[in-house]
Amino acid sequence: MTLPHLGMSLELKYNSMENSRDERYLNFPVQLLAGFLSEKDMVLENIFHYALFTYSLKLNEGSDSQRIKATIKYFNVTNFSPAKGKTISETVPGKGPVTGISLSVFWDYYNKEKTPFESAVFLAYCALKSIVGEQSFVKIDNLYLLSRMDGKAKSVEEYDQLSKEIFEYATPYKIRRLKDALVDNWGLKTYSRHTRGFYVSFKMELDALVFEAEKRREKAKRAYLKHKEKEAYLKALEKIRMMGH
After folding, report:
1. Which residues pair with 201 in a beta bridge?
2. Average of pLDDT values for 180-196?
3. Residues 128-164: pLDDT tens digits?
4. DSSP 12
5. Which H helix or E strand runs over 190?
6. Is the pTM value of this prediction over 0.85?
7. Cβ pair 198, 192 in contact under 8 A
8. pLDDT tens across 34-90, in order?
9. 43: exposed, middle or buried (Cβ count in 10 Å: 0-12, 13-18, 19+)
10. Tens of pLDDT, residues 92-106
11. Domain coordinates of the chain in residue numbers?
12. Which residues are within 8 A (CB) of 5 and not within 5 positions of it... i.e. 6 or more apart?
């Protein structure tokens, strides 16, 4: 899916809401993340117009112009384009997974130059937020993470189905670096000891996440042993049956 560049000078009225408990969030489908590593500003502009347009649609009172003014006031910006937001929303097929970023993160990435790695960390954060959603924690694998970073609603089956930009991060070392950065600065908790895939959470403390992971690993281990015990029992019965002939 190729999204149009709907360039528009974006501007914050003032920065009083940064680090505030009254932080605003831009919510958008993960498909809008596609191409972020090569066209950061374009992707962020599309996210901005989409998020404000869809927010304005949810306001129940007033005329279109009144809802637009209320949206501008709520997000503390000088302007946005409902027409551009509508155009972008029409490019997103169906109801895909949704993610979100705070306004302070948005302006930080929009107004400042970022290294390729910092941009990849942003994508990893958005990807994981879309996967975790309202859940306390989830277990995923690296391919699922990279697929969401690539703006894909579903995980691809093979790494070579990822875009060239995202495929660059498809190594254990680089994915570990992304996770470490998210743990250090973005509030992520993650655990992967003796597990296929890894557990992630933005709500739980690490010890609680480890408990849930180990509890499930122990349960899976017991189920496997019970299955093997049943197999051995059936084989023994068959052997006894054959001895009787």
Report:
1. 189
2. 90
3. 999 999 999 999 999 999 999 999 999 999 999 999 9
4. B
5. strand 189-191
6. no
7. yes
8. 999 999 999 999 999 999 999 999 998 889 899 999 999 999 999 999 999 999 999
9. buried
10. 876 789 999 999 999
11. 25-184
12. 39, 42, 45
Q: Tell me, what's the pLDDT at 2? A: 46
Do residues 202 and 187 make contact, with C-beta atoms less than 8 angstroms apart?
A: yes
CA distance 68 to 73: 9
**How many residues does this entry show for the chain?**
245
Q: Which two tokens stand for residue 140?
A: 């995923």
**Token couple for 128:** 């994981």
Relative to beta strand 25-29, strand 98-102 is antiparallel
Q: Which helix (H) or strand (E) holds 43?
A: helix 40-57
Spatial separation of the C-alpha atoms in residues 197 and 172, rounded to whole Å: 12
Instruction: Name residue 155's amino acid.
Output: S
Query: Mean pLDDT, the chain, as a whole number?
Result: 87
Distance separating alpha carbons of residues 214 and 219, to the nearest angstrom: 8
Q: Using CA atoms, how far apart are residues 121 and 165, in angstroms rounded to an integer?
A: 13
> Residue 29: what are its φ and ψ, rounded to 5°?
-70, 145
The residues that bridge with 200 in the sheet, in sequence order, are 138, 190
CB within 8 Å of 210: residues ≥ 6 apart: 191, 193
